[in-house]
Amino acid sequence: MQPLATLIAQGRGQTPADLVLRGGRILDLITGALLEGDIAICGDTIVGTCASYEARKVIDVTGLILVPGFIDTHLHIESSLVTPHEFDRCVAPRGVTTAICDPHEIANVIGPEGIRYFQQAAECTLMDIRVQLSSCVPSTEMETSGARIEAADLAALMGHPKGIGLAEMMNFPGVLAGDPALMAKLDLFRGGHVDGHAPQLTGRDLNGYVAAGIRTEHEATTAAEAREKLQKGMRVLIREGSVSKDMAALAPLLTDLTAPYMCLCTDDRNPLDIAEHGHLDYMIRSLIASGVPPLAAYRAASLSAAEAFGLKDRGLIAPGKRADIVAINSLEGCHARLVLCGGAEVTDKAFAARATVLPVGRASVKAPHVMPQDFRTTGNREATDVIGIIPGKIITDHLHEVIPITDGDKRPDPARDLIKIAVIERHGRNGNIATGFVRGFGLQAGAIASTVCHDHHNIAVVGADYADMALAANRLGQIEGGFVVVRDGQVLAELALPVAGLMSLEPFEVVRDHLVALRAAARTLGVTLEEPFLQLAFLALPVIPALKITDRGLVDVNRFEIIG
């Protein structure tokens, strides 16, 4: 931190600035004007704009537009399938200078140790990673996680300089019911920041949820749902992830009028989608192309996000603000040509100079060795509950199909797109195996399996052949977790995720290439989904109104009860 006298002297031009950006135009997010003049920077702070400055170092940005660094307001870095250091290297060059993450994926596997790992990693990255404290570990009592975090555990993690508040309060039924453990967590953060997660909640129930002090919502999937939540004081975070794609539905609501109360987030986005399309830069381009005013899009990406999360030191290119700056080719193009994080230029050299943190959560896959017969679905009722995938959504349909019983088993029926799904407990707690049926993969043969299985992160496997399902599940134990595609007794493609069964130790480029191979292998099985592995991961998430599957069986979440 620079002395105030130094900031003032450089801002007044009495002494040379540490760094000047010269020749570009500044997008003023207050008036919408494009301003002329230098940007003077002292250490990590902007000290001057709209004037001429001398500096120890000058960067020529002629022809570029300078905008505040982008803020991803809600994401799980684990879903990028790489460590925080690699995530930093993957998205900071695209202009993301702040990421507000919830490490509840790793927390559900190894508990507070996983959160501390993220806190330590956040101290080393170029981008500013803010680590919210995970509120729901496990997300409900209907699943078996690897850990449990109570209010006392959160209290011990509070006060870290990279913290903001309590991460998404997923268990909204527990909040409405006044669950004592949840009330203790909300009381711990009362008056502070609490993130929301309340899909399709409306009316008086929504009132009660917001009255608990919950401030944000990233689960709105329709403009009507988002509008009601805005009207009740919530900040709505427009989400566009690898599976949950809500941007098109919410874009008409983002205007210059609503932009101060709307933000952008990715929630779960993998390196392949980032490479092919982008991150928040992709969202900004897409929103503007759909008719959203550029000022509204850039406000949502920075200033509104900073205000929503109490980050008063950023979100504008103005004196006294943190020097998070992106030089882009055009407002519509939003392709970063230069990125500063806290005044430091994002370069390969800067990434190489970062301190590192040892990975945690190794050897976390402790699942039982499974056999083909473990995937049989017994029972004497041919009427069957089926999970129906809705492409681009993590909510699902609750379907009903008649599946005949043959030799005491309900078999997969690929011709009807009815394939078997199973969840296998992998934390070494009870060895449970639950089976069900899902429609929407298009899979005709073989199996795919994953240890990325929200939010308990047990093994999820879908398939048309029991032997291939068993091979895929067992292979995950051998590679410490990840993704596997199997057909006719052969592993066609795989990606090892040895950090808690969630993250790779490889560079993001290697992970991206493995995802390309996995996607291609899945296509040979007949899979039609764009993101089959992350879609599979969300089929076990129990806190979304739908039919889901956990290691304890099929769950009707509308009634919050296990039905099969």
Shape: globular
Strand ordering within the main sheet:
20-19-24-23-26-25-27-28
Which structural category do the helix and sheet elements fall into? alpha/beta
**What is the gyration radius calculated from CA atoms?**
24 Å
Distinct helical segment count: 17
What separation lies between the terminal Cα atoms?
Answer: 59 Å
Quaternary state, please? single chain
How much strand content do the residues show?
Answer: 15-25%
Mean pLDDT: 94
What's the total count of β strands? 31
Characterize the biggest β-sheet: 8 strands, mixed
Fraction of residues in H or I helices: 25-40%
Poorly predicted residue ranges: none
Brief summary:
By secondary structure, the protein is of the alpha/beta class.
Break the fold down into its secondary structure elements and pairings.
Elements: H1 4-11, E1 19-22, E2 25-27, E3 34-35, E4 38-42, E5 45-51, E6 58-60, E7 65-68, E8 70-75, H2 84-91, E9 96-101, H3 104-110, H4 112-122, E10 128-131, H5 151-157, E11 165-169, H6 172-176, H7 180-188, E12 193-196, H8 203-211, E13 216-217, H9 223-231, E14 235-239, H10 247-250, E15 262-265, H11 271-276, H12 280-289, H13 294-308, E16 325-328, E17 336-341, E18 344-345, H14 348-352, E19 383-389, E20 396-402, E21 405-406, E22 409-410, E23 419-424, E24 433-439, E25 447-450, E26 459-463, H15 466-478, E27 482-487, E28 490-496, H16 508-524, H17 532-538, E29 547-550, E30 553-556, E31 561-562
Parallel strand pairs: 1-6, 2-7, 8-9, 9-10, 11-12, 13-14, 14-15, 19-24
Antiparallel strand pairs: 1-4, 2-3, 4-5, 7-16, 16-17, 17-18, 19-20, 21-22, 23-24, 23-26, 25-26, 25-27, 27-28, 29-30, 30-31
Helix pairs in contact: 3-4, 5-7, 12-13
